[in-house]
Write a structure and sequence with these properties.
alpha/beta, about 475 residues, Rossmann fold, 3 domains, globular, TIM Barrel, six-stranded parallel sheet, about 35% helix, 16 helices, seven-stranded mixed sheet
Amino acid sequence: MNEHGDTPVDVLIVNPPSPDGTVYMREICRCGRQSREGMIWPQTSLAFIAGAVDDRFSVEIVDCIGEQMPWPRFEQLLRAKRPKYLVTYLISSIIYNDLRVAELGKELGAVTIAIGPHVTTMPESLEELTSVDYAIRGEVEETIVELLEELQAGRAPVDVKGIAFRGDDGVVVTPGRPLLEELGNLPQPRQDLLPLDRYRMPMIDGPFTMVTASRGCPYPCIYCRKMALWGNRVRLRPVDDIMDELLWLDSLGVHNVVFLSDLFTVSRPQVIELCRRIVEAGLRINWQCNSRVDHIDEEILAWMKRAGCWQIAFGLESGSQEVLDRARKGITVEQIEHAIRLTDRFGIKAWGYFIIGLPGETRETIRKTIGLSKRLPLNLALFHVAVPYPGTEFNDLAKENGWLLSDRWEDLDMNYSTIIEYPQLSAAEIDRAVKRAFLEWYLRPGPMMRLLGSIRDLNTLKTMTGNLWRHASWLRA
């Protein structure tokens, strides 16, 4: 566990407490959601921010979700630390919960800085978010260094690119900052400031963390909010930097890794070189990654398996070609079937993500999606409602066509309810379909036996019991 003393700190970087004691997942390039699976998400992006400023300021990370820190304990810690600068996530679905961090910081005299997709895509919201002094839009590392240097010097940061703040005449949004040309310019993330022993993921023995391999994705999927942060230009992290981090984590006893990339297999040369280096170093790690079904083949799967890859997460989205095409996914149902079966043949498990409620969805396309999920050799399947997040093409289409039922930020939740309704398909039908898909997929002998087989000790039994209770509560709602 990451221990916090009473020593004041210059920069405190915060993953806020949960509003209700359940696990929430926040990330710099993802929208955030409550975790039905109970996965405690490693805060690698916060570690990069700490690495960017640690040679200029004293810095700490408080991951309240990872440390299961409730609000009263966080408030006590914040009073002890009395940071000069307080950096915190804001995610749309629980924004008023997350704002409490900034409100408490302001009471103590801290300069408050918000990060994440909410303020990146809606910087004008600072007009309402009065406890936030500055918002950083998009990539954080270079911007926060410049912002802090200007503030330290007592200058108004009007020339700092990529920020927003309230001025005399409303919200000032400075010009966007160009993305880093090379991820080799990133600092090594301060993962030592994270509670690495607390991170958990279904079907993983022991703690794990995330390691960044690239940023950006070249594909124009209409529902993806990552485009607003990273754009469609892919930037690869040097293999030397990745290996340095993996070897350092190995020395700390962290042997389970998830590669955090918008598309891990976007570069075959990088993946194969990384796998070769892992094998040559004799590094014994178990790792997962994500991929698209059109970015794997026999050679890359063979290398990945040899280097310790045991599971790949695929965004499959739909069993309807029409829905895939309208979402601009750029794949076919036939490619989905081929890739998942090929992955299974190499002894690598496949985790499938599906979205119900994308444009063109009908009762028939939903049946196709559920049918596809059940005939594929998937290790796990997750079904989410389609959410038109601000900054996405999906959001623009929803506004243009009158599909939106709500404009409340708190209603943007991909797990529990939809704010989309079509003439041919109601929001209630979409919500019921997600629950039906879950029940039809998991209440079969294969998935049930895999879940039971994953129980290895009292801790995994406790985790599974909690997950089952959360899912049962969701299904009854």
